[in-house]
Amino acid sequence: MERHSAAVFVGQAIEVTEQTEAERQKNYYGVGVKFRVERYWKGVKTQEIVVHTRFWCCHPALNPGKRYLVYAIGKKLETGCTRTVPIERAEEDLRVLGQGKSFEPSATNTQKPPSN
To answer: What global pTM score does this model have?
Structure first.
C-alpha cells in the first residue's frame, strides 16, 4: 500500500478548489483538496498539501472539515483508486503504518518537517 504511493499522510481537508478552465480543456474533471497534515509517512514537505481527485474515480468524497488517511500517487498527487479513507475507517492501515512523523507543535502552515 504505502510503497506505491508518492505521499501518505493523515490530514484534515480544509479547502476544495474546482478545476480550472485550462484543466477542463485538457479533459481533467476533478478537484484539488488542500489538507492540513497531522501525521505523515512519506512525500510531505510542508504542513499543508494539495492532492487532486477525479470525479469518476473510486474514492471517498473529500469534504472540508473531515479527516482522512490519504494515499496519493503520481507527480500531481492524485488519490485516484487508492486506499484513501475517512480516518474512522483507517484503523487497520494506521496499525500497519506505525507512528509516522508529525510537525512541531508551533508549526506554521509552511514549516518544513524536522530533520532526523
So the answer is: 0.80
